[in-house]
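Onboarding guide, step 5: your first structure request.
Type a short instruction followed by the sequence, for example:

Predict the 3D structure of this protein.
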Amino acid sequence: MVYAAFNTLVRERDTDVLLVTGPGHGAPANHANLWLEGTHEEYDPALARDEAGLTELARRYCAPEGFPSHLSPAVPGTIHEGGELGYALATAFGAALDAPDRLVACVVGDGEAETGPTAAAWHSTKFLDPVTCGAVLPVLHLNGYKISSPTLFATMTDEELTHLFRGYGWDPRIVDVTGGPDGAPVADAVRDAHTAISSIQAAARNGDRPVRPTPRSSSPSTATRPPSTNCSTAGPTPTASTSAATSRKAPPPRPTTC
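The system replies with structure tokens like these:
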């Protein structure tokens, strides 16, 4: 649905869209769309849009002579190979720098979103100039799962998610597609977001640049670390450290064991 929504944007508005796919092992979704639209068949007749072509596409998935589970140079249209989780959003921002007419669509998995690189990359809007740079439109694919357990985002309400991303500097739109494979709400959200992005860029390029919040000085603080422990003898625990904001009384002496 996401792929189709951005294809609709290209067809309707002639937008320069670059797609970055972030979820782990997300290449099959791209292959499915490339097969449905006929791109695979255009470059390889063995992948025709019929039963034999679909069978061959499935056979090649993760086969030694076939396609890997991530996007590779063997996939039509791929210009940057993936294979490592967490760097899609940062890559998307890099692709938008100094490309004022480009919209970089980045699909982010909610498990991937818990990685350090992705968590930090949400702040990268601060580095995009709406006059000289393009824009990044991330799509957080919140299916609620990762390898070991539900994701953190899956435990949050829509209101909490909205507040979180507004705090990062985004203007989020939440689309619920759990009721069935209806791509219209996704396409509508993509159109709406693109309209808002185009308005911001047009205003900035006419001299009305967005106002950034005034930087604030940080509060004084004291860095502390736990006291060292002598493993050879038993003795009292040293007094607890204090910070600039709060302090604690030292606990009573107790023997230390290793």
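Each response can be followed by summary notes, for example: The two ends are 56 Å apart (CA to CA).
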